Amino acid sequence: MENRSTYWLVAPSALIFCVLFIAPMAFFVVLSFWQVEYFELSTEPTISNYRDVFANYWHVMGFTVVVATATALLTTALGFIFAFLARFRAGKWAQVLLFIVLITLFGGYLMKIYAWKTILGNEGVLNSALMAAGIISSPITSLLYSPQAVVLTLMHFSLPFAVLPIYASMRGIADSEVEAARDLGARRWPILSTVIVPRCQSGIVAAFSFVFLMVGGDYVTPLLVGGKLTMIGNLIAPQFGAQFNWPLGAAMSIVMLIAAVVIIYLFRLLIALWSRQ
Length: 277
Hints:
The chain is mostly helical.
């Protein structure tokens, strides 16, 4: 009877998960094997869409994976440092730091992008400050419309999504555990690597996953601050719009999702191996 009661309690959330996640993904998988003929969907199974993805878009896919991985690693590391300071060093100011993180979530996505365009532009804040200080004589044109600008902008947007899960996992670490490690003679780095990181492993993996998935599917940031840079999201969006090639767009999405699962799984393995040392 207790098991049946548990199943009934889980059933509503399981139903919502299936309707909002499993069913759309299953439809995308099926759609990726269809094709478009004379602007009409043909349900005849084919793998031509996947051949097209690997033949013509592999370089864009690879660039997207590199940018998403770099952004996720940097953002997770920065989020870990912020969460560590808030949990173990800030004291009574920890709630203030968390409030600042939460406030940034209310800032508009496009507002953050245009803010970085203002900062990194040829006549932006950074170039103007460097020229006023006499450090440079002409604007640094490579600051904007570059991979670095894309990564920096995406880090700004996704940082709160890295800080919150890591801080939540650190809340489960009691101060007595850290003090016990110190009493046993452990210094800062051993405490960090053998106590704190293993205990907040789930939060670190969650932070990396959130950032990677958001960055991997983004197409607005490369469009506005990347210049001629193209990520897979910039190719997927038109397939469902002007080009009306939904099967190809679905195939791109599925391939990117598989790549994301592989990268996240490898990251989880690395964190697990580090935690066992």
